[in-house]
Amino acid sequence: MTITNKTATLSFDDKQLTLPMHSPTAGPDVIDIRKLYAEGGVFTYDPGFTSTASCDSTITFIDGDKGELLHRGYPIDQLAGKSHYLEVCYLLLYGELPSAEQLEDFENRVTMHTMLHEQMTYFFRGFRRDAHPMAIMVGVVGAMSAFYHDSTDITDPWQREVASIRLIAKMPTIAAWAFKYHIGQPLVHPRNDLDYASNFLRMCFAVPTEDYEVNPILSRAMDRIFTLHADHEQNASTSTVRLASSSGANPFACIAAGIACLWGPAHGGANQACLEMLREIGTVDRIPMFIDRAKDKGDPFRLMGFGHRVYKNFDPRAKVMKQSADEVLELLGVDDNPVLQVAKELESAALADPYFAEKKLFPNVDFYSGIILEAMGFPTSMFTPIFAVSRTVGWISQWKEQLEDPAHKIGRPRQLYMGATTRDYVNVEDR
Ligand code: SDX
Known about the structure:
Order of helices and strands: EEEHEEEHHHHHHHHHHHHHHHHH
Number of helices: 18
Strand order of the largest sheet: 1-2-3
Strand content: 5-15%
Largest sheet: 3 strands, antiparallel
Radius of gyration: 23 Å
Bound molecules: s-citryldethia Coenzyme A
Structural class: mainly alpha
């Protein structure tokens, strides 16, 4: 945080307060209100945190107006085009791009942690077969603290490092096993001779009755999806992880909380909801009716995959995702996919509509990811688990950053109380 001599003056009632301001390396200045209640006796009010910085961070920067996303200063389109997921994991965790040796060591460490404790297979079998894979992931990741006791002490830097590697390494196995259990197929173990994305695809789609060859174009697309979802500053699930971590909860419990939050259709569940919406629209001629519903204040329907709290321009991830969608669908010979046709027509129609232009509602990362994942053979129920696999490194990096900040404290927001004031109890016979 850069301390400047700028200040803000706040006048109300008979008070005039001078509040310090801080200037970031990028983005808007902030007014430091940490002493506001002590000196002014008032709270600020910002449900949804539309104007509130909850922390300082050096990991990810988003310029919503420009549609820019930087990870440790590197633009997402360059990382998606030139890097790969585990290298981006290293960048997010440690702050710099790794040397060749550092990258090889990191990839080996992750590879050596991809297996799950064999006892955990019984945990999977406790679920009903029709359990949503996200329900399984929330449960299994939370249960990791019952299996990996030697990496739950958050005050020990070495245990924090081991927990970070374990989570990044095991999430693909957990998600793949949730999928296999859901469809009633045998669980497939990870292999050490495959890269991260290829390992995940094989664990999801291999069956014991035949060899499974990973298609390099699909593996590259999978890796790119992982890269594009890796981190996104203080979004709802990351803020959930930070808040859970602020109480000293173990890393597995914190990540399970993040998974639970991501599940919501307004957040990580939007990719599943978007594809279900595209299917419900079904044909291009029905698009105008759905656009009218999205504009109707009386109708709760929203265009899933459109809009964003921060981006008031194109989500830069959506641009890259759209390129991947074209590549994958061409490879799979499904570029005449009716869902894709509806998606492309819907995007054009929405972008040409004054309502969406005025409200700056553009396609977000979830708009195209679901199309790619469906083309790859994933059911919609696996879309958000894949988002969770990718975002684990973002959650862990932000968790690590917060724990390494000596000034960090438990998060405890206040409220604008609008309930009853003090009143005496009334016995039931007198009510
Ligand atoms: C992710 O935060 C992150 O960084 C999240 C994420 C990440 O990587 O972590 O980027 C991932 O969650 C992407 C967003 C996925 N969600 C969806 O695609 C669901 C559909 N989108 C909307 O639910 C909505 O756009 C949100 C939740 C994403 C953002 O909502 P905001 O910021 O609270 O905005 P808002 O609801 O106040 O909307 C502003 C206006 C409203 O109209 P008015 O009340 O001003 O008249 O725009 C309208 C909304 O009604 N609006 C939409 C709309 N999104 C907003 N109208 C129709 N369709 C939509 N999709």
